Amino acid sequence: MIQGPSKDLTLIVYDTPNPPKYIKINKFLMKMLIFIIPIIIIISVGSSLFTSVYMKQQIEQARSQEPEIILNLREKSSELASELEALKKTNSDLIQKISSGTNTKLSTDISGITALIAIPLGFKDLRSIQQAKLENLTSESAKEKVLFKFDILNNKKNNEKLAGFITVVQYHKDGISFYPNYDLSIDSPSLVFSKGESFVVSRFRPVVAEFKKPKGTIVWYKIFIFSHAGDLISYKKTQNFTLD
Fold first, then answer.
1. What is the pLDDT of residue 235?
2. CA-to-CA distance for 90 and 69, rounded, in angstroms?
3. CB 115 within 8 A of CB 107
4. What 3-state DSSP class applies to 167?
5. How many angstroms from the chain centroid is the CA of residue 111?
6. Positions in the chain short of pLDDT 50
7. What pLDDT score was predicted for residue 100?
8. 7-39: per-residue pLDDT in tens?
9. Res 101: pLDDT
10. What is the pLDDT of residue 110?
11. What is residue 122's three-state secondary structure?
């Protein structure tokens, strides 16, 4: 009778003068030892090398980004220092105004300009100093809204930042509209300068004032730029704009 292949490998070991030893080894286990284990070792070594190279690249990348991170932190620190300096100056101006106890008497010219504005204590008209310039005024109309655009240019000396509030009044056939949106009432019939859009400018800042499109075809605008202490920095009345 023909026998099938054995699953085991039989070894006889002669160790004279000791009697021979009979050793039986499973063929599958032997193949595992010869082929699988070396493959596992190779994969482990390859994985270790890949991990080592990847970690080295990550460390190098982190080191290369370190100067950029430090630069960003310095810029942020500089911005915070400038804002702190501006807040200190605003605080000093407000203390001085409160100490004066009364509002400055307004000339006929400025009272006409600020007729809609609630005049703060110690108000000053600083337009003659020309701390801010208003340029590139345009008006674009769409189906349901109007975009009035302009640029604020910082005209202060010594690279000092310009800060304050922006209010834009749109005049049209049915009356007036405000940016930022503001509702006048019997209890509050005047605009408050601090309700305007807050801004800080190093060089220039584009402004986009959005209004609901009014009836009619003609609009014009008045732009008020106030300091944080409530002084009028800049003012401009525009030409008429024709809506599409």
1. 93
2. 31
3. no
4. strand
5. 38
6. 1-2, 99-102
7. 45
8. 666 666 666 777 777 666 666 666 666 777 777
9. 44
10. 76
11. coil
Query: What is the rounded distance in angstroms from the CA atom of residue 168 to the CA atom of residue 160?
Result: 24
Give the pLDDT of residue 37: 72
Q: 211: helix, coil or strand?
A: strand
Quote the longest CA-to-CA distance of the chain. Answer: 131
Residue 243 makes CB contacts below 8 A (sequence gap 6+) with 139, 141, 146, 213, 214, 216, 217, 218, 219
Neighbouring residues of 199: CB distance < 8 A, sequence distance ≥ 6: 152, 163, 164, 165, 166, 205, 207
Distance CA 141, CA 84 (A): 39
Distance in angstroms (rounded) separating the CA atoms of residues 25 and 7 = 9
Single-letter amino acid code for the residue at 158: N
CA dihedral over 208, 211, 216, 220, signed as positive or negative:
negative
What pLDDT is stored for residue 179 in this prediction?
94
Decide: helix, strand or coil at residue 100: helix
Euclidean distance between the first and the last CA atom of the chain, given in angstroms as a whole number: 106
Among candidate residues 191, 172, 177, the one with its CA nearest the CA of residue 116: 191
Could you tell me if 43 and 29 are in contact, meaning their C-beta atoms sit under 8 angstroms apart?
A: no
Do residues 152 and 134 touch, judged by C-beta distance below 8 A? Answer: yes
Distance separating alpha carbons of residues 121 and 229, to the nearest angstrom:
9
Give counts: helices (H), strands (E), the chain.
3, 11
